[in-house]
Amino acid sequence: KQKTAYEMTTTAKTLSFVIPSYNMEAYLDRCVNSLLSAHRTDDLEILIIDDGSKDGTLAYAQKLERNNPGIVRAIHQENKGHGGAVNTGIEAATGKYVKVVDADDWVGPESLEDVLATLREEITRDDPIDMLVTNYVYDKVEKRHKHVVNFRHAMKPGKRLTWDDLGHFGLAEYILMHALIFRTDVVRASGMKLPEHTFYVDFIYAYQPFPWVKTLKYLDTPFYHYYIGREGQSVQTDVMIRRVDQLRLVNQCMVRATPERGTVPDGLYRYMIHFLAIESSVASVFMILSKDPANYAKKEALWNDIKAYSPSIYADVRKKAMSRALNLRGSAGRFIIRSGYVVAEKVVGFN
């Protein structure tokens, strides 16, 4: 089989960046340049997945490929949604590790050097870590103070860890996709295929591979900048309310990826139940915020689905304080939930 021009100019890769891109021409330059800012780039791979864009995304990605041979690669596909683009990137990645970076986001240059130094050291080991966790920044439009999410109290920085070494995660704290770098073989071994044409699949990405993760490390550095607040973004409150059916689909995928107690390390099971409780609660919140009785029924169905799949997982998820709060009965319970959401949004500024 004849090698492509890209393959002929590439060397062994430490890290593959996967950039799902749909109509992201205006943002690609900032994103890709942040990745190319590394002092050394020959062992990096930047895969720009053009997901059937209708603007100049593909042409600009191809320009970046021409200007950075052996590093940047433009891949075009018919539109499959964010999940479909991530799937394509994971399949195409040649790096030992893989990191998804949304096209309107970017990474910090100082943190990039710390991350690459860590991964380059790991690939020289006989047993490299399966997952690297970093901090991420809510880089909200027109907000001067940027909220940085860290995991200092749950993970000891710079140490090789197992799930049983992890401490307590806060009530609404979880390891978002933006914080994760996986060993590529781990993601593939998990068999994860994200649903196509579905939003919020980042919950699945940051969940399903975990039973295949045996060792991890945490770097206390603000690596990922999560750009939030632009018009039409999928995490805006009104948009999420319109997409509650997709939140429910994501929940179903997560439930089916949840191992039973005793089949995985206790620390991993506790964390996955914690995260499943959060996603179930998030979906429930937006069903309640809709003020639509049909969505109230969907909320009840969501929780019944968990119980039908596994009574023991359901019982453990319902024990969580957030889950108990989200299942308060009647109009008074829904009022409390809506009020709590407004307070949380103003304090954290996540939308």
Give a written overview of the molecule.
The model is unreliable at 330-351 (pLDDT under 50). It is globular, with a radius of gyration of 20 Å. Strands 1, 2, 3, 4, 5, 6, 7, 8 and 9 form a nine-stranded mixed β-sheet that branches. α9 runs antiparallel to α10 (266-289), α10 crosses α12 and α11 (293-309) crosses α12. It has 14 helices and nine strands. It starts with a helix and ends with a helix. It has 351 residues and is an alpha/beta fold.
The general outline is globular
How many β-strand stretches? 9
| Ends distance | 49 Å
* Mean pLDDT figure: 88
Beta-strand content estimate: 15-25%
Contiguous uncertain segments of 5+ residues: 330-351
* Helicity level: 40-55%
Q: Helix- and strand-based class?
A: alpha/beta
Task: Give the number of helices.
Answer: 14
Q: Can you write the helix and strand succession as a string? A: HEHEHEHEEHEEEHHEHHHHHHH
Strand count, sense and barrel status of the largest sheet are: 9 strands, mixed
Question: Nearest-angstrom radius of gyration?
Answer: 20 Å
